Amino acid sequence: MKESRVEYLTCPIRQVVAKFCDKWSLLVLYSLHASDTGVMRFTELHKHMDDCSQKMLSSTLKNLEKHNLISRKVYPVVPPKVEYSLTDNGKSLMPYIMGLIVWAKEHFEDVAVH
Amino acid sequence: MKESRVEYLTCPIRQVVAKFCDKWSLLVLYSLHASDTGVMRFTELHKHMDDCSQKMLSSTLKNLEKHNLISRKVYPVVPPKVEYSLTDNGKSLMPYIMGLIVWAKEHFEDVAVH
DNA sequence: AGCAAATCTAACAAAAAAGTAAGTATAATA
DNA sequence: TATTATACTTACTTTTTTGTTAGATTTGCT
C-alpha cells in the first residue's frame, strides 16, 4: 500500500494502522501508561518486553516519537540516560487502547498482561 | 516473535495485535459495522477498499473468521454468493474500534473515512 | 459456441519486516 | 589496565508479507 495515496492520507483507520498498529507499539504505550512515574528508560522498557529485540524496540520508539505519541528526553551523561514518556497526545489515546485491552481480557481465555 | 511463547498466549495486547492489528482488518470490521444491512459480499467489500488486492482481502477475511470476529455464509449458487457479517464477538469489539477512529478524526488533520 | 458473473486459489516475484550478532562511545570503577 | 554501564547503530541474513498474474468454477445469456 502506498502511503502517498489519498486513502492513506484521509482515512483515520489507515492512520491508526500506520501510527501504532504494529507488534510492539501497543506494548510500549501500555508500559508507559502503567508505570508509576510515567517515565521509563530504554532498558527498563526492554525488560518489560524481552521478546522484542533492541533494534525493534529502538525503531518502535522512534516511530512513536515521530507520530507525537511519546517523547524522548536525553540526559547528557555517561553512560547515557534517556527517558521516554507519553505526550499529551499519547495520553489522550490511552483510554481507547485500554478499552481494547479490557475487551481482550474479557473475550479471550487465560489472558494476562505481560 | 514466536506465537507459541507464553507472552503471546497470555497477553491481551499481543492477542489484539495478532487478531486484528493489521493493514486491512480494521477496514473490514468498520465496513461491515457501517453497512446498512450489516451484511456484505466479497466484491462489495472490495469496492470499499480497492487498494487492497483480492488476495489480501481474502486472507484478511479468513483470519477474521478464524478469530471469530466475522462470519461467512455461502449460498450454493452460480455465480457464487458469499455474505460476510460481524459475529456477536465482533460486534462487542466495535465500540472500542470506533473509539479509536473517533480519536483519530479528532487528532489528525484532514481525515475522513474512506 | 463463447462469454460474463462472483469468489476465490495458486504460483511466482518483489518488497518489507524482523532476527542476530557485533560494534560504538566514554566516564567511572575495580 | 580492563571492565562495566546504557542506549543505541550497523551490517547482514532470514522470514514474512504483499503484489501480480493467471486460472478454476459453472450456470445462464447472447
What is the H/E string of chain A?
A: HHHEHHEEH
CATH superfamily of chain A: Winged helix-like DNA-binding domain superfamily/Winged helix DNA-binding domain
Mean pLDDT of chain A: 89
Regarding quaternary structure, what we see is homodimer
CATH topology group of chain A: Arc Repressor Mutant, subunit A
Shape summary of chain A: globular
How does the helix and strand content of chain A classify structurally? alpha+beta
Q: How are strands sequenced across the largest beta sheet of chain A? A: 1-3-2
Radius of gyration of chain A, in angstroms, nearest whole number: 15 Å
Under the CATH scheme, the architecture of chain A is Orthogonal Bundle
Low-confidence sequence ranges of chain A = 1-5
Largest pleated sheet of chain A: 3 strands, antiparallel
* DSSP, total strands of chain A: 3
Proportion of residues in β-strands of chain A: 5-15%
Number of discrete domains of chain A: 1
Largest interface: A-B, 40 and 39 residues
The helix count of chain A comes to: 6
Distance between the termini of chain A: 32 Å
The top-level CATH class of chain A is Mainly Alpha
Can you describe this structure?
The structure is a homodimer of 114-residue chains. Chain A has 114 residues and is α+β, with helices and mostly antiparallel strands. The first copy, chain A, has a single domain, classed as Arc Repressor Mutant, subunit A. Helix content of chain A is 56%, strand content 13%. Chain A has six helices and three strands. In chain A, strand 2 (70-75) and strand 3 (81-86) form a beta hairpin. In chain A, helix 3 (25-34) packs across helix 6 (88-107). The termini of chain A are far apart. Mean pLDDT of chain A is 89; it is low at 1-5.
